[in-house]
Design goal:
Radius of gyration: 17 Å
CATH superfamily: Vaccinia Virus protein VP39
Oligomer: single chain
Structural class: alpha/beta
Strand order of the largest sheet: 5-4-3-6-7-12-11
Mean pLDDT: 95
Helix content: 25-40%
Shape: globular
Length: 244
Protein backbone atom coordinates (compact mmCIF):
# COMPACT_ATOMS: atom_id res chain seq x y z
CA UNK A 1 0.00 0.00 0.00
CA UNK A 2 1.58 3.32 -1.03
CA UNK A 3 2.23 6.00 1.54
CA UNK A 4 -0.30 8.83 1.29
CA UNK A 5 -1.43 11.93 3.15
CA UNK A 6 -4.75 10.11 3.44
CA UNK A 7 -4.56 7.29 5.98
CA UNK A 8 -7.94 5.51 6.34
CA UNK A 9 -6.34 2.25 7.49
CA UNK A 10 -4.32 3.95 10.23
CA UNK A 11 -7.26 6.05 11.37
CA UNK A 12 -9.41 2.93 11.59
CA UNK A 13 -6.73 1.29 13.76
CA UNK A 14 -6.57 4.32 16.03
CA UNK A 15 -10.34 4.45 16.36
CA UNK A 16 -10.48 0.79 17.35
CA UNK A 17 -7.55 1.23 19.75
CA UNK A 18 -9.53 4.01 21.45
CA UNK A 19 -12.50 1.73 21.85
CA UNK A 20 -14.63 3.10 19.03
CA UNK A 21 -16.73 1.02 16.64
CA UNK A 22 -14.53 0.81 13.54
CA UNK A 23 -15.46 -0.72 10.19
CA UNK A 24 -13.44 0.01 7.07
CA UNK A 25 -14.27 -0.60 3.43
CA UNK A 26 -12.16 -2.29 0.78
CA UNK A 27 -13.36 -1.09 -2.63
CA UNK A 28 -12.15 -2.87 -5.77
CA UNK A 29 -11.89 -1.03 -9.08
CA UNK A 30 -14.76 -3.07 -10.56
CA UNK A 31 -17.12 -1.80 -7.87
CA UNK A 32 -16.93 -4.83 -5.57
CA UNK A 33 -17.06 -3.74 -1.91
CA UNK A 34 -16.03 -5.65 1.20
CA UNK A 35 -16.67 -4.31 4.72
CA UNK A 36 -14.27 -5.45 7.41
CA UNK A 37 -14.06 -5.03 11.14
CA UNK A 38 -10.78 -4.51 12.98
CA UNK A 39 -10.90 -7.25 15.62
CA UNK A 40 -8.66 -9.56 13.62
CA UNK A 41 -5.80 -7.06 13.68
CA UNK A 42 -5.80 -6.98 17.50
CA UNK A 43 -6.45 -10.63 18.47
CA UNK A 44 -4.37 -12.46 21.03
CA UNK A 45 -2.19 -15.44 20.07
CA UNK A 46 -4.64 -18.08 21.30
CA UNK A 47 -7.16 -17.00 18.64
CA UNK A 48 -4.73 -16.93 15.69
CA UNK A 49 -5.24 -19.36 12.80
CA UNK A 50 -3.21 -22.58 13.15
CA UNK A 51 -1.22 -21.84 9.98
CA UNK A 52 0.03 -18.58 11.55
CA UNK A 53 1.09 -20.35 14.73
CA UNK A 54 2.80 -23.15 12.80
CA UNK A 55 4.64 -20.82 10.43
CA UNK A 56 5.76 -18.39 13.14
CA UNK A 57 7.40 -21.27 14.99
CA UNK A 58 10.17 -20.85 12.37
CA UNK A 59 11.10 -17.34 13.57
CA UNK A 60 14.70 -16.89 14.64
CA UNK A 61 17.08 -14.06 15.50
CA UNK A 62 16.33 -10.46 14.59
CA UNK A 63 12.94 -9.98 12.95
CA UNK A 64 11.55 -7.53 10.41
CA UNK A 65 7.74 -7.30 10.41
CA UNK A 66 6.70 -5.85 7.03
CA UNK A 67 3.27 -4.23 7.11
CA UNK A 68 3.13 -4.49 10.90
CA UNK A 69 -0.16 -2.59 11.27
CA UNK A 70 -1.05 -2.17 14.96
CA UNK A 71 1.61 -4.71 15.92
CA UNK A 72 -0.24 -7.96 16.60
CA UNK A 73 2.65 -10.21 15.54
CA UNK A 74 5.46 -7.93 16.70
CA UNK A 75 4.04 -7.71 20.23
CA UNK A 76 3.78 -11.49 20.57
CA UNK A 77 7.30 -12.01 19.24
CA UNK A 78 8.62 -9.46 21.74
CA UNK A 79 7.11 -11.50 24.57
CA UNK A 80 9.09 -14.47 23.24
CA UNK A 81 12.33 -12.52 23.53
CA UNK A 82 12.84 -11.60 19.87
CA UNK A 83 14.16 -8.24 18.71
CA UNK A 84 11.53 -6.99 16.26
CA UNK A 85 11.44 -4.02 13.90
CA UNK A 86 8.00 -3.25 12.51
CA UNK A 87 7.48 -1.16 9.38
CA UNK A 88 4.33 0.16 7.75
CA UNK A 89 3.49 2.90 5.25
CA UNK A 90 0.65 4.04 7.49
CA UNK A 91 1.93 6.65 9.95
CA UNK A 92 -1.01 6.20 12.27
CA UNK A 93 -0.69 2.41 12.21
CA UNK A 94 2.90 2.85 13.36
CA UNK A 95 1.70 5.22 16.09
CA UNK A 96 -0.86 2.67 17.28
CA UNK A 97 1.80 -0.06 17.28
CA UNK A 98 4.03 2.11 19.44
CA UNK A 99 1.17 2.98 21.81
CA UNK A 100 0.51 -0.74 22.21
CA UNK A 101 4.14 -1.44 23.11
CA UNK A 102 6.04 -2.25 19.91
CA UNK A 103 9.52 -1.01 20.79
CA UNK A 104 10.80 -0.37 17.25
CA UNK A 105 8.12 0.64 14.74
CA UNK A 106 8.93 2.81 11.72
CA UNK A 107 7.18 4.43 8.77
CA UNK A 108 8.71 2.74 5.71
CA UNK A 109 7.59 1.45 2.32
CA UNK A 110 8.37 -2.23 1.67
CA UNK A 111 9.43 -1.23 -1.85
CA UNK A 112 12.11 1.11 -0.48
CA UNK A 113 13.74 -0.67 2.42
CA UNK A 114 16.38 1.31 4.28
CA UNK A 115 18.42 -1.36 6.07
CA UNK A 116 22.00 -2.58 5.79
CA UNK A 117 22.85 -6.03 4.36
CA UNK A 118 22.41 -8.85 6.84
CA UNK A 119 20.31 -6.78 9.26
CA UNK A 120 17.72 -9.49 9.93
CA UNK A 121 17.46 -13.25 10.35
CA UNK A 122 13.71 -13.45 9.73
CA UNK A 123 11.27 -11.35 7.71
CA UNK A 124 7.55 -11.85 8.28
CA UNK A 125 5.06 -10.86 5.58
CA UNK A 126 1.78 -11.55 7.34
CA UNK A 127 -1.76 -10.60 6.39
CA UNK A 128 -1.17 -10.63 2.62
CA UNK A 129 1.92 -8.40 2.84
CA UNK A 130 3.63 -10.76 0.38
CA UNK A 131 1.80 -8.95 -2.43
CA UNK A 132 1.89 -5.41 -1.08
CA UNK A 133 4.48 -4.23 -3.62
CA UNK A 134 1.97 -4.66 -6.45
CA UNK A 135 2.56 -6.75 -9.58
CA UNK A 136 4.78 -9.77 -10.07
CA UNK A 137 7.78 -7.71 -11.15
CA UNK A 138 7.43 -5.33 -8.21
CA UNK A 139 7.04 -8.24 -5.79
CA UNK A 140 10.13 -9.90 -7.20
CA UNK A 141 12.12 -6.69 -6.74
CA UNK A 142 10.95 -6.42 -3.12
CA UNK A 143 12.13 -9.99 -2.57
CA UNK A 144 15.53 -9.13 -4.04
CA UNK A 145 15.84 -6.27 -1.53
CA UNK A 146 14.83 -8.59 1.28
CA UNK A 147 17.45 -11.08 0.09
CA UNK A 148 20.12 -8.41 0.63
CA UNK A 149 19.05 -7.40 4.14
CA UNK A 150 18.57 -10.97 5.42
CA UNK A 151 21.47 -13.05 6.73
CA UNK A 152 22.82 -16.00 4.72
CA UNK A 153 20.74 -18.48 6.73
CA UNK A 154 17.79 -16.15 7.03
CA UNK A 155 14.21 -16.78 5.95
CA UNK A 156 10.90 -15.20 5.04
CA UNK A 157 7.57 -16.23 6.54
CA UNK A 158 4.70 -15.14 4.29
CA UNK A 159 0.94 -15.57 4.41
CA UNK A 160 -1.30 -15.00 1.42
CA UNK A 161 -4.35 -16.48 -0.30
CA UNK A 162 -4.70 -18.64 -3.38
CA UNK A 163 -7.04 -16.46 -5.46
CA UNK A 164 -8.30 -19.40 -7.50
CA UNK A 165 -9.93 -21.02 -4.45
CA UNK A 166 -13.31 -19.30 -4.87
CA UNK A 167 -16.70 -19.86 -6.42
CA UNK A 168 -17.76 -16.21 -6.16
CA UNK A 169 -18.83 -15.15 -9.67
CA UNK A 170 -17.62 -11.58 -9.08
CA UNK A 171 -14.12 -12.83 -8.28
CA UNK A 172 -14.11 -15.30 -11.17
CA UNK A 173 -15.17 -12.55 -13.56
CA UNK A 174 -12.37 -10.33 -12.23
CA UNK A 175 -9.86 -13.14 -12.80
CA UNK A 176 -11.01 -13.44 -16.42
CA UNK A 177 -10.72 -9.68 -16.93
CA UNK A 178 -7.15 -9.84 -15.67
CA UNK A 179 -6.28 -12.72 -17.99
CA UNK A 180 -7.63 -10.81 -20.98
CA UNK A 181 -5.36 -7.93 -20.00
CA UNK A 182 -2.33 -10.19 -19.61
CA UNK A 183 -2.33 -9.77 -15.82
CA UNK A 184 -2.13 -12.39 -13.05
CA UNK A 185 -5.63 -13.52 -11.99
CA UNK A 186 -4.96 -12.56 -8.37
CA UNK A 187 -3.81 -8.98 -8.98
CA UNK A 188 -6.41 -6.60 -7.54
CA UNK A 189 -6.64 -2.81 -7.66
CA UNK A 190 -8.27 -1.55 -4.48
CA UNK A 191 -8.59 1.40 -2.16
CA UNK A 192 -9.39 1.66 1.55
CA UNK A 193 -12.10 3.86 3.02
CA UNK A 194 -12.89 4.73 6.63
CA UNK A 195 -15.65 7.19 7.45
CA UNK A 196 -14.86 10.28 5.35
CA UNK A 197 -11.27 9.19 4.67
CA UNK A 198 -10.55 7.71 1.23
CA UNK A 199 -7.14 6.28 0.37
CA UNK A 200 -5.43 6.08 -3.04
CA UNK A 201 -5.88 3.18 -5.44
CA UNK A 202 -3.12 0.59 -5.21
CA UNK A 203 -2.34 -2.91 -6.48
CA UNK A 204 -2.24 -5.96 -4.23
CA UNK A 205 -1.12 -9.37 -5.47
CA UNK A 206 -2.52 -12.74 -4.42
CA UNK A 207 -0.79 -15.81 -5.80
CA UNK A 208 -1.13 -19.55 -6.04
CA UNK A 209 1.73 -21.56 -4.49
CA UNK A 210 2.92 -22.29 -8.03
CA UNK A 211 2.98 -18.59 -8.91
CA UNK A 212 4.82 -17.83 -5.68
CA UNK A 213 7.52 -20.35 -6.61
CA UNK A 214 7.92 -18.70 -10.03
CA UNK A 215 8.24 -15.22 -8.51
CA UNK A 216 10.67 -16.01 -5.73
CA UNK A 217 13.15 -18.19 -7.66
CA UNK A 218 14.82 -15.39 -9.68
CA UNK A 219 15.04 -13.32 -6.47
CA UNK A 220 17.12 -16.02 -4.78
CA UNK A 221 14.48 -17.78 -2.67
CA UNK A 222 12.83 -21.20 -2.59
CA UNK A 223 9.81 -22.62 -0.78
CA UNK A 224 10.98 -24.70 2.17
CA UNK A 225 7.54 -25.49 3.61
CA UNK A 226 3.86 -24.71 2.99
CA UNK A 227 1.07 -24.61 5.57
CA UNK A 228 -2.52 -24.57 4.36
CA UNK A 229 -5.58 -23.48 6.32
CA UNK A 230 -7.70 -26.21 7.86
CA UNK A 231 -10.79 -27.02 5.82
CA UNK A 232 -9.65 -24.93 2.88
CA UNK A 233 -9.81 -21.63 4.76
CA UNK A 234 -10.64 -19.66 1.63
CA UNK A 235 -7.32 -20.67 0.08
CA UNK A 236 -5.22 -19.10 2.82
CA UNK A 237 -1.73 -20.49 3.21
CA UNK A 238 1.66 -19.71 4.72
CA UNK A 239 5.03 -20.27 3.09
CA UNK A 240 8.49 -20.57 4.61
CA UNK A 241 11.04 -19.19 2.14
CA UNK A 242 14.75 -19.84 2.48
CA UNK A 243 17.70 -18.61 0.45
CA UNK A 244 18.81 -20.80 -2.41
Amino acid sequence: MPESLSDPFGKAFMAYHRGENAVFIIRRDDGYVDEQTLEGYFTEYEYWPPLEKESLAWVKGKVLDVGCGPGRHALWLQTKGFSVTGIDVSRMAVEVAMLRGVRDSRVMDARHLDFSPGSFDTVILMGNSFGVAGGMGETQEMLRRLHRIVTDNGLIIATTRNPLVTDNPRHLSYHERNRRRGLPPGLVTIRLEFRSEVGPWFDLLFVTPEEMAQIIEPAGWRIERLYKADGGGGGNYAAILTKK
